[in-house]
Amino acid sequence: MRLLIVEDEKRLALSLAKGLTAEGFAVDVVHDGLEGLHQAADGSYDLVILDIMLPGMNGYRVCSTLRSAGHDVPILMLTAKDGEYDEAEGLDTGADDYLTKPFSYVVLVARVKALLRRRGSAGGASPVHVLGDLKVDTAARRVFLGEDEIALTTKEFAVLEQLVVRAGEVVSKAEILEHVWDFAYEGDPNIVEVYISTLRRKLGAALIRTVRGAGYRLEAR
Ligand code: CA
């Protein structure tokens, strides 16, 4: 799951990014409304956290511009204090939810997850994916092999999730990197291989096929 944070208070943006990254999300941060609009419009985000008072373009306009261009990415709006934000106006522009600063980090994470879940069920996709004896619950973030629950780290889970939601299809290493890490990741792209081999060790070698030169495919045994 890939999130975009559009927030000009840099310390807040960075601490949110840090926390959400630890939750297993890939997070990009921009500090300007216009830049936020461009990033969000490229369409590869699962959710956008959008401040209202921003340089470049304010959050209301970013939101309404995205909606009128047909983008339906879930948007969680942030506002500085009670009263600045007109809830009706915000929801009019097409925001899905809003939070008033200062908010607790736990509440933010809960709202983010609720929006992502709502999005998942609106699309008709079940959060539980079953493939042979593998069962992956993307809402509860639990993985079972037969009756046994398999413990995965947040990154391992995120890599598996990319494969399981597209089971039977080839998923490239670049796509996994982009969704699980973030665009600023400058480490070795072979990190994906390391996670794939850990997943094979935990879930069985035959589950994840390597498709030479193309990527990986999850297959039922
Ligand atoms: Ca602001």
CATH architecture of the largest domain: 3-Layer(aba) Sandwich
Shape: elongated
**Which ligands appear in the coordinates?**
calcium ion
Structural class: alpha/beta
- The CATH topology of the largest domain, please? Rossmann fold
Roughly what percent helix? Answer: 25-40%
> Any idea what the radius of gyration is?
18 Å
Major sheet: arrangement of strands = 2-1-3-4-5
CATH superfamily of the largest domain: Response regulator
The end-to-end distance, rounded to whole angstroms, is 26 Å
Total domain modules: 2
The CATH C-level name of the largest domain is Alpha Beta
- Please tally the β strands and state the result: 12
Helix count from the secondary structure assignment: 8
Order of helices and strands: EHEHEHEHEHEEEEHEHHEE
The percent range for strand residues is: 15-25%
Main sheet? 5 strands, parallel
- Which spans have pLDDT < 50 for at least 5 consecutive residues? none
Give the overall average pLDDT: 86
Structure in a nutshell:
This protein is of the alpha/beta class and 221 residues long. The chain is built from eight helices and twelve strands.
